[in-house]
């Protein structure tokens, strides 16, 4: 609620509630629906956009494109909450964003559509100034490319009776006021509207206010422009105006109230007949004639000859005014259907469509009491409320029922709060059908059925009325406690014809007035005659429109309009709706006017249920806005003023009725997103390319669940964010969207790589092409040069002139042949086109015929099925009745036999009695004795009667006293029970609140865990990126060096080429000089005629040679110039590449610097972890030393045991001594041998070892120095981080100090409030003491009254006994009557005392409740004070902890600097220790190996000697012992080697912490 108020105050009317959208009507026109805003939402995901109605349209459109599944948007809410406006915004967004081929569907066209719908289907009501009075579905069909291919509108539940009859203070449809205000003079004259009637039976009168007339005139002009946009011609518009004028004139004509049914004013009726194109007699007969016959037929639609007579009584009750109203409503219904068909004609298209998107808009919840009207709701308002309830039930089923069923199917256990049931109770009270709905019977049964079925039955039953209908309805659905709204959803009203129905889970109680409802269930032939009247009209424009429409099935059973359309999806929608009206019960009941309401809503729900539904909940901000008040919220108001315009109670009731909070809870706590295993693996396999590489591209998955588990593990998702079901994987809210975002990023990356590969391939191909072109250019250049050489040659001139003449004839023949082929192909093409057009026409005709036949076949099949079902039910009913008849016949026969036997017995008894009487008359003497006995028996009987009566009275008094005591005890127990129930309710509320808080904390904890997980992933990702960046930097450095080298080489080559070019230029200059000299010599030779021809030929030869050399040199110069140019281009390209690399490198360095800043926080964590590791290693060292001491003590104890051992141990020790002596001797021999052998080799080996060790130590020292430098830099960075954290902690400390001061001031204020509350509490305690005193006085009075009551009872008993005595003693009746009067007075006094007692008891209970409330307030105040104190203490503890952390950080800083110095000092000692320890290790390993070999040899020799010298038994024992000793020795050797390995491991791990002596000791051990 707070969120909605804040957003509404900031002019943010849209909010997300899980997967649903909440829109609060702003009561103004905000500027958030512009075209610019539309393009902001284009192509975006729902998670990336702000809440807006455009985001709903975008998400539905995106799902339609990705899943290729039909989508639908359903708008829910009260009347006046802005559903139709949001529907218009949805359509405009989809049409403008998706587009259409050739821009057939423009925003202007859809605006024209809604202008026409508002004119013909909207009116002003008490709830809304422009309320929709019909339900409609906008169907947008999309093609493969995602563009709008076609569109259509289907309408239903038109409130057609509003034309003639409506509630008070409400108007008829807007079109009548538009026409009367906006018609020009010619149209007014043609419609006979120059004279307006003073009164009308339909209440259609022009508007009186001038501003309303001006607004209606503007709307009529806008309506005519909209009709032109949609292609509605002038003649068609004229037909519409004629029908509307005829309806107006029918209302002005009126009807007689008594006598013969006819028009009241015939001149107005004549005008109506003229406008409709018929005579007055035809119009009058269509309205008033044959009413009884028609009604008799219509009411006997259940069949049976007996019903005809029963229907006459109901038919005779129809008045002339009702017939006139039926004709007007029928005419307007036909007119509205015609308008819808004209709109669909403008919207249809012949393009192929793939899937569709439906937008459902229905009139909202209607409640007259919300608009401060004191009337009951009408039947039409009940129909609209019923439609909203069905849509709300669909929302409940999709949101709760299907989700929980899916969890149950997939074995997912989810701890959710109890979900309340849907609105099925209120829906069942309206439309529940009986199991015998198909049986033809008129009998009223006790089986429960809804209001619509009861209306139909009561309309047919003789003597049926609204009162009997309500009684039956209450008997089926009324609650046992009539005044409690919580027990049921149906209550009685204050008046007999009123009832209350609880809508929206009992949050919206609507009072309905049932007067005249049965008339809605009766067929009136006048409404049916309206269609025939229009089709038979003499005006061609009217008859042409309605005859053409009558040929096609555009209306379904007179209910649903707009079923036109030739596309596949439109035919599929029409077929599904027809199936709803022709299947089962609907085939029989589809002509019933009441059942048509249910069938229309069934068809709507069935059409929506086939698609994925998106719900939009529209809310009313306040109750005053409902009645169309002038209060509006402007954009300039402050948020506070916006908050004040909200009615919190109304908004809370709407939220509770829509169950949005429960939907949000199940969305947050459950797994709303789910995908099938195969689909999830196929869609998100791109995020794990290593799995694809591992299994191969064509890997066949056998276990989808296992593959999905591997994929999820590779994606590193938290376990709490998903759950594996049996066939699909479920995700928490937001997880799948994050995966989609990652997939989009990866897809973009892959596409960019693919584009790069494609561009590389294309550039290589282009380069090859350029090479070929370069070669071709050079070839052309050479040919041109050759051509220049031979163009003056006469033979070449002859060749060039003759060759084209030769080719002319050949080309002319080829052209002639090609022309003939072209003509033949054109003829073939024309023939094929004709055949294709004929086939297309035939196929279209056959397809339309097939669809018609299929629809007819489906209808026939459905009617056949319904007829067969009806036949089966009738046969079963007949068989049951025959069986019952046989049973009754058998019972009748048996009863008849019993009756005969009883009659025989009676006759026998009579005979016996007569014989006995005859015997008594004979024995007359003995009769006296019998008479005396008889009298005495009678007296005894009377006495026993009196005695029993006395005993009975006594027992009755005792029982009454016991009853009173029990009643008192029961009342006490009931009070205790009610108190316990209240406590239980409070505890339940507390538990619910605690569970909700626990769920919130769980969700918060999961969010924190997921955040930590994401941070760890980012850390790992950053480490990998850092290493990759470092590698890339190294690679870039190497590339730079390479480029620099290539640059140097290229500069060298260019320098050399320039030198060569200069040399060539010099040579060319020299050649030119030579040419000049030769020309001069040639002139000289020409001048000298004395020279001979031989010298001249020689000179010419030299000249040609020089020219050839000159040409060759020019070609070489051109080639060198080309190479120079290419090299310069390569140089420029390399420089540009270097510049680009430098820029990218600088950008990456900046990004890496930013990421390094983020790492510093993780470094603190690593520092702490290192300190913890050091402490653990120190503890491990202490443990090892302790174990060493324990082993030494065990060794000493073992030595003590060995000293006191037996002979066998002595033998074993002797053997060990011998073995060790032999080993020592062997070692001495080996040492002597080594000394005597080659001292030079030993020295060489030592020198080599020293050289290797020195190199190794040098390398180790260098590595250690580098590592120390890195650690020093890290320590510097850590010092800086520590200083930053210190500053942050100081800031936090100051902030906490401020918070502490604020809390102290708040505590002081709370203390003052507590003092005031204590004062109030003391006053309340004093008041309660006074009340207790009053209670004690009242209790005393009560006791006195009880005593008086007891005395009165005793007096009554005494009087009763006196009365009985007087009756026995035959006292006068006057005394008895006097005593009875006294008795009555005493009883009245007793009742008065009882009322006093009850009043006092209620006063006591009220005082107790006040006392309990005061004590609860005191407890709450004390608990709040305790919480404030605890919060203060917690803040103080936080301050103290922060101070301690600051001290610890300072200590750690000093310790880190000290460790730095210590580590620098340890480097040198470690280098020296490393050399000595390696030498010691080598020597120790060598000695250990020699000693082990010698020990094994000695043991074998000793065992052999013992075996030879000992007897067999001892020999066997020795053999066994030797095996055991071997095993023990092997274990000892294993422990020794393990100890050596362990010591080496300990040495390597504690090298930086332990000193040299400990390492030496560990190595030798």
Describe the fold and architecture.
- The protein is mainly alpha-helical and 1565 residues long.
- Helices cover 74% and strands 5% of the residues.
- It contains 38 helices and 17 strands.
- The chain has a 7-stranded mixed β-sheet, sandwiched between helices.
- A hairpin with a 5-residue loop joins β9 and β10.
- α3 crosses α4, α21 (568-582) packs across α23 (593-609) and α36 (1373-1509) crosses α37.
- The protein is extended, with a radius of gyration of 55 Å.
- The two termini are 76 Å apart.
- The model is unreliable at 291-316, 438-442, 480-486, 625-644, 1510-1526 and 1532-1565 (pLDDT under 50).
């Amino acid at each position: 609620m707070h969120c909605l108020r804040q957003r509404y105050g900031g002019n943010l009317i849209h909010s997300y509630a899980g997967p649903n959208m909440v829109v609060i009507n702003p009561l103004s026109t905000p500027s958030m629906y512009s075209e610019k805003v539309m393009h902001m939402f284009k192509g975006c995901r729902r998670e990336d956009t702000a809440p807006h109605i455009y985001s709903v349209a975008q998400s539905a459109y995106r799902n339609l494109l990705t899943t290729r599944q039909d989508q639908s948007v359903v708008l829910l809410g009260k009347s006046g909450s802005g559903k139709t406006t949001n529907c218009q915004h949805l359509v405009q967004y989809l049409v403008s964003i998706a587009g259409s081929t050739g821009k057939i569907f423009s925003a202007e066209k859809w605006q024209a559509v809604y202008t026409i719908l508002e004119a013909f289907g909207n009116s002003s009501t008490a709830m809304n100034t422009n309320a929709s009075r019909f339900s409609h579905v906008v169907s947008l069909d999309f093609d493969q490319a995602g563009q709008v291919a076609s569109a259509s509108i289907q309408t239903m539940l038109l409130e057609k009776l509003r034309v003639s009859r409506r509630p008070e203070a409400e108007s008829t449809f807007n079109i009548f006021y538009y026409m009367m205000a906006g018609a020009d003079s010619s149209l007014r004259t043609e419609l006979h509207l120059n004279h307006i009637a003073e009164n009308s039976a339909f209440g259609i009168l022009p508007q009186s206010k001038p501003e309303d007339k001006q607004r209606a005139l503007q709307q009529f002009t806008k309506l005519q422009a909209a009709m032109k946009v949609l292609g509605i011609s002038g003649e068609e518009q004229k037909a519409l105006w004629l029908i509307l004028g005829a309806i107006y004139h029918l209302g002005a004509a009126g009807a007689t109230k008594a006598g013969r049914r006819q028009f009241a004013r015939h001149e107005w009726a004549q005008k109506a007949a003229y406008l409709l194109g018929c005579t007055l007699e035809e119009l009058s007969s269509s309205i008033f004639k044959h009413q009884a016959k028609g009604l008799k037929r219509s009411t006997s639609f259940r069949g049976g000859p007996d019903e005809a007579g029963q229907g006459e009584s109901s038919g005779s009750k129809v008045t002339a005014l009702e017939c006139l109203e039926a004709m007007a409503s029928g005419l307007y219904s036909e007119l509205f259907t015609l308008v819808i068909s004209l709109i669909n004609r403008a919207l249809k298209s012949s393009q192929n469509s793939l899937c569709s998107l439906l937008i459902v808009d229905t009139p909202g919840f209607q409640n007259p009491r919300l608009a401060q009207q004191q009337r009951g709701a009408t039947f039409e308002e009940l129909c609209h409320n019923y439609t909203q309830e069905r849509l709300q039930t669909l929302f409940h089923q999709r949101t709760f029922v299907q989700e929980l069923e899916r969890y149950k199917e997939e074995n997912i256990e989810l701890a959710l709060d109890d979900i309340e049931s849907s609105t099925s109770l209120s829906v069942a009270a309206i439309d529940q059908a009986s199991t015998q709905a198909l049986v033809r019977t008129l009998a009223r049964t006790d089986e429960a059925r809804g209001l619509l079925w009861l209306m139909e039955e009561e309309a047919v039953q003789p003597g049926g009325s609204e009162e009997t209908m309500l009684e039956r309805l209450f008997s089926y659905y009324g609650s046992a406690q009539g005044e409690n709204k919580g027990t049921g959803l149906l209550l009685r009203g204050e008046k007999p014809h009123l009832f209350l129905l609880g809508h929206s889970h009992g949050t919206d109680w609507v009072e309905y007035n049932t007067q005249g409802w049965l008339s809605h269930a009766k067929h009136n032939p006048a409404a049916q005659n309206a269609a025939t009247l229009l089709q038979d009209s003499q005006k061609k424009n009217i008859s042409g429109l309605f005859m053409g429409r009558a040929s096609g099935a555009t209306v379904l059973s007179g209910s649903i309009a707009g079923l036109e359309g030739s596309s596949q999806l439109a035919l599929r929608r029409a077929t599904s709706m027809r199936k709803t009206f022709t299947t089962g019960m609907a085939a029989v009941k589809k002509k019933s006017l009441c059942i048509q309401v249910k069938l229309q809503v069934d068809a709507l729900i069935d059409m929506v249920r086939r698609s994925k539904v998106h719900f939009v909940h529209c809310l009313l901000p306040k109750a005053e806005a409902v009645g169309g008040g002038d209060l509006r919220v402007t954009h300039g108001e402050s948020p506070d003023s916006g908050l004040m315009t909200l009615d919190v109670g109304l908004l809370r009731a709407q939220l509770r009725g829509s169950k949005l909070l429960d939907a949000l809870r199940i969305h947050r706590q459950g797994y709303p997103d789910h995908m099938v295993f195969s689909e999830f693996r196929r869609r998100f396999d791109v995020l794990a390319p290593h799995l694809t590489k591992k299994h191969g591209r064509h890997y066949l998955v056998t276990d989808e669940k296992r593959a999905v588990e591997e994929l999820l593990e590779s994606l590193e998702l938290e376990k709490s964010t998903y759950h594996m079901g049996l066939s699909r994987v479920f995700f928490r809210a937001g997880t799948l969207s994050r995966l989609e975002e990652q997939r989009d990023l990866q897809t973009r990356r892959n596409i960019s790589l693919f584009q790069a590969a494609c561009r590389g391939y294309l550039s290589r191909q282009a380069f090859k092409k350029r090479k070929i072109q370069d070669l071709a250019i050079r070839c052309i250049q050479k040919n041109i040069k050759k051509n220049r050489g031979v163009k003056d040659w006469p033979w070449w001139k002859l060749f060039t002139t003759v060759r084209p003449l030769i080719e002319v004839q050949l080309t002319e023949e080829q052209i002639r042949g090609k022309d003939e082929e072209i003509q033949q192909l054109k003829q073939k093409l024309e023939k094929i086109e004709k055949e294709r057009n004929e086939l297309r026409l035939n196929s279209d005709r056959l397809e339309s015929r097939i669809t018609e036949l299929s629809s007819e076949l489906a209808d026939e099949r459905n009617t056949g099925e319904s007829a067969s079902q009806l036949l089966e039910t009738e046969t079963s009913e007949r068989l049951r009745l025959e069986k019952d008849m046989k049973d009754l016949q058998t019972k009748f026969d048996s009863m008849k036999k019993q009756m005969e036997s009883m009659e025989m017995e009676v006759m026998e008894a009579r005979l016996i009695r007569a014989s006995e009487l005859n015997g008594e008359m004979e024995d007359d003497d003995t009769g006296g004795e019998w008479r005396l006995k008889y009298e005495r028996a009678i007296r005894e009987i009377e006495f026993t009667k009196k005695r029993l009566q006395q005993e009975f009275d006594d027992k009755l008094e005792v029982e009454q006293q016991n009853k009173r005591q029990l009643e008192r005890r029961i009342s006490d127990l009931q009070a205790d029970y009610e108190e316990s129930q209240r406590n239980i309710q409070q505890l339940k509320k507390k538990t619910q609140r605690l569970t909700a808080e626990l769920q919130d904390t769980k969700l918060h904890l999961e969010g924190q865990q997921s955040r930590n997980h994401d941070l760890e992933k980012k850390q790992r990702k950053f480490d990998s990126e850092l290493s990759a960046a470092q590698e890339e930097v190294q690679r870039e450095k190497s590339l730079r060096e390479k480029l620099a080298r290539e640059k140097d080489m290229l500069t060298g080559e260019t320098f050399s080429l320039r030198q060569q070019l200069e040399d060539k230029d010099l040579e060319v200059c020299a050649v030119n000089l030579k040419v000049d000299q030769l020309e001069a010599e040639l002139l000289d030779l020409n001048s000298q005629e004395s020279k001979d021809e031989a010298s001249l030929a020689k000179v010419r030869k030299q000249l040609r040679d020089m020219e050839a050399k000159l040409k060759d040199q020019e070609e070489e110069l051109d080639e060198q110039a080309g190479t120079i140019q290419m090299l310069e281009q390569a140089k420029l390209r390399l420089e540009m590449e270097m510049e680009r690399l430098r820029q990218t490198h600088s950008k990456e360095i900046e990004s890496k610097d930013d990421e390094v800043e983020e790492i510093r926080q993780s470094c603190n964590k690593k520092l702490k972890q290192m300190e913890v590791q050091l402490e653990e290693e120190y503890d491990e060292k202490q443990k090892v030393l302790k174990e060493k001491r324990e082993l030494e003590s065990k060794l000493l104890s073992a030595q003590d045991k060995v000293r006191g051992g037996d002979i066998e141990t002595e033998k074993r020790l002797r053997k060990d001594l011998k073995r060790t002596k032999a080993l020592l001797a062997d070692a001495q021999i080996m040492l002597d041998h080594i000394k005597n052998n080659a001292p030079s080799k030993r020295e060489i080996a030592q020198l080599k070892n020293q050289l290797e060790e020195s190199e190794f130590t040098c390398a180790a020292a260098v590595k250690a120095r580098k590592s120390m430098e890195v650690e020093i830099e890290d320590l510097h960075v850590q010092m800086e981080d520590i200083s930053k954290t210190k500053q942050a902690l100081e800031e936090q400390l100051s902030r906490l100090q401020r918070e502490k001061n604020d809390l102290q001031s708040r505590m002081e204020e709370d203390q003052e409030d507590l003092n005031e509350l204590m004062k109030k509490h003391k006053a309340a305690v004093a008041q309660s003491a006074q009340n207790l005193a009053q209670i004690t006085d009242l209790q005393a009075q009560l006791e006195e009254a009880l005593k008086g009551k007891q005395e009165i009872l005793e007096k009554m008993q005494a009087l009763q006994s006196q009365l009985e005595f007087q009756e026995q003693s035959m006292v006068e009746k006057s005394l008895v009557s006097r005593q009875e009067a006294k008795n009555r007075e005493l009883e009245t006094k007793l009742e008065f005392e009882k009322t006093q007692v009850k009043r006092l008891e209620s006063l006591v209970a009220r005082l107790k409740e006040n006392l309990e409330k005061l004590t609860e307030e005191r407890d709450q105040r004390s608990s709040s004070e305790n919480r404030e104190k605890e919060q203060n203490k917690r803040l103080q503890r936080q301050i103290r902890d922060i101070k301690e952390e600051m001290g610890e950080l300072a200590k750690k800083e000093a310790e880190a600097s000290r460790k730095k110095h210590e580590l620098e000092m340890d480097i040198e000692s470690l280098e020296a220790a490393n050399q000595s320890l390696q030498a010691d290790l080598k020597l120790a390993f060598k000695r250990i190996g020699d000693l082990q070999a010698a020990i094994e040899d000695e043991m074998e020799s000793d065992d052999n000697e013992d075996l030879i010298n000992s007897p067999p038994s001892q020999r066997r024992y020795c053999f066994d012992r030797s095996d055991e000793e071997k095993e023990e020795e092997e274990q000892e050797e294993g422990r020794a080697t393990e100890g050596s390995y362990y010591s080496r491991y300990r040495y390597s791990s504690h090298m930086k912490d332990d000193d040299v002596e400990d390492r030496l000791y560990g190595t030798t051990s």
